[in-house]
Amino acid sequence: MDKHTTTLPVTFTGQGRDYFGIWAVNLLLTVLTLGIYSAWAKVRRMHFFYRHTRLAGAAFDYHGEPLSILKGRTLAFLMFMGHQLSAEAEPLLAVLVLVILLAVMPWLLHRSLCFRMHNSSFRGLRFVFRGSVKQAYVVFLGLPLLIVVSLGLAFPLWIHALKVYQYGSSGFGRSEFQCALSRGEIYRVYLAAGIVTVVGAGVIILLLGLGVAEGLSLDEEARRQALTIVGSAALFVVFAMMLCVAPFVAARVQNAVWGGLSLGPHRFVSAVSGRRLAFITLTNLLGVVFSLGLYRPFAELRLMKYRLESISMLPDGNLDDFMARTEADLAALGEEAAEMFDVDVGL
Amino acid sequence: MTSPDQGVDALYFDGRSSRARAVKLSLADGELVLRGEDVERHVALAVLRLSEPLGRAPRLITFPDGAHCELPDDDVFRGLLLESGQRNAAVVRWQFSRTAVLVSLLVLVAGLWAVHEWLLPQLARRLAEGVPEALTERLSDETLEMLDVNVFSPSSLPAARQQALTKRVLALAQPDAPAVRPQLAFRRGGRMGANALALPSGLIVVTDELVMLARNDEEILGVLAHELGHVSRRHGLRLAIESSAIGLFAAWYIGDVSALMAGVPAALSQARYSRRFEREADTFAARLMGANGISPAALANILERMEMPASVGQEGGSEAAKPRRTPSDYFSTHPLTEERIRYLRGL
Question: Tell me, what CATH number does B58's domain have?
């Protein structure tokens, strides 16, 4: 690591009040057009996030076309309606439709990853997703089935495969990302989360047990009060766990993924703090609730800013030498021919 | 812009490599002139693509061959925009106009209110009508089972009294379609006290305490007529559908961690909806009582006594020790009952 003498932090310059206007107008037009405008809304939102994200003095850019996004959304809507209608007509048919949907879903997710990377650029060069369709079936169908079979034990394995597929199959211009994500680290993260969850569940069961024991010994009025107190305490524990475990997992996974990522000789580092992320999550939640929802765009921006600005690049030399893919490269990938559309997934 | 020699600073990316070139931009004869390290371009303004404003994000000037310039969003760029004859789309102007954003918000809030007040109740009514009988039966059975375990104990009312009451209810003429075939079940109310409870299937649970509290059968019939109103109008199902729709919306909107918080808005609007349902059931009861020669005042009378401090004589010790509350104390915290009594007496 000696050769990386400088670090280039990612910066995010988006301001809440600018995003608020974009959010409000987008939402109104989406409602008024019964959702059709949502594709244009997404493009404006992506432009806002990408162009405010800067690295080494230049901004990222997004090139997705609203019509491609609309196509993907229409497809998703039709599939959903198809399933709903078949469920009304004939339950057996609905099962068949569900199986077909599950079978095409990995392909759709693959197209969606291609779309997103192809439409992202930095310094005038496009990103690219080179992951195979076959691997998409392993990641989006095979491993999820394994999770079910293994009663959840394979979950960290799936997260690992998903991140390696997503990041490690990406490229920038002609250069390729390598994702050396340690499987052990991901298992450790989820093991810790699992232990905390089990302990928390133990506390809840203990509390409920206490409540029942109290309830047996007291008269009716006191029993009701005891149950209320114990019930609220249990609810509080559940809430605290959800609030703490998820941000800590998200923080450690992000740090592990970016820590293992390299682009040619350049490396990255991510320093998200689980505590800070939990604090942001909690205050965002309170802000949204107490502003009756108006704080939501600010909350979204705040979380994004923190997660982005935790990432830095450790460059090896300057960033001027990346080359764009040539026509031949693109043809080899079949990118020109393949239909591009976006299916929204929270990957 | 200033003299062509000076121009404005920008970064130029040719789209073939990631190299950033510092360039000067200027305008001459309807053309953009770009000069910098080993690059000089003259491009007609008409073929340039100028990016939309996004707050403090840099502006992009994209050339027909895919090369682009990145420059700050300041007066210079706006001058260029003006000169090129390109204008921001209306949507973009709205996003950054305080008035337009405010109007969007107001329209959204009004729309949300309209959905909550008119659309959702209508939809819930339609949906509730479509719920198959088998499902309402099962829901009702499960609810009663749960209440039997947690709240109720077996009735100590003489069987003859139970049968007499059942007979009188069955004999009631029902003026409003759809007629409901009432079924009565008697229980000791425990902490529910003097009360009656309608389940979606048409089963009405009457507590012993209610029968004791009534000064005559007309009062009991009044309460049962009110409960029949809930059954006939399917209030239980409608309330369940409405509050789960609101809960789902809130969960989606607040997002992520906060599934637990989603119950709050649902509970808040449940109070509003149930007020409407009480009025509907009272109207139904008044018509039914009128058709059977009973004055609606009978219902008002027993309501007044039902909502008084529970069971003054019954559970002895703890309750008697507390200072007696007067009806006006009670009504200051329960305006709904007061309003209902006034309504029924005014009929």
Answer: 2.30.29.30
Instruction: Specify the pLDDT at position A198.
Output: 86
Q: Are residues B155 and B71 in the same domain?
A: no
* Total structural domains within chain B: 2
Partners of B257 on chain A (C-beta within 8 Å) are 242-243, 246, 281, 285
| Angstroms from A288 CA to nearest CA on chain B | 7
Predicted TM-score (pTM) of the model is: 0.78
CB contact under 8 A, A58 and B11: yes
Token pair 């600073």 in the structure block, residue: B9
**pLDDT at residue B273, as a whole number:** 64
B100 and A CB contact within 8 Å:
yes
Domain check: are B253 and B283 in the same one? yes
Q: Which residue of B has its CA nearest to A236?
A: B260
Residue spans of chain A under pLDDT 50: 1-2, 336-338, 346-347
* Structural domain that includes position B264: 113-346
Residue B183 to residue B170: CA distance in whole angstroms: 8
**Residue B18 to residue A323: CA distance in whole angstroms:** 6
Measured in whole angstroms, the distance separating CA B290 from the mean position of its chain's CA atoms is 35
Find the residue in B nearest to A245 (Cα). Answer: B257
For B162-207, write each residue's pLDDT tens digit: 999 999 988 888 877 667 778 899 999 887 788 888 888 888 999 9
Q: What three-state secondary structure class fits A157?
A: helix
Residues B170 and B277 in one domain: yes
Q: Predicted ipTM? A: 0.80
Strands B183-188 and B203-207, by their bridges, are parallel
State whether B121 and B225 are in the same domain: yes
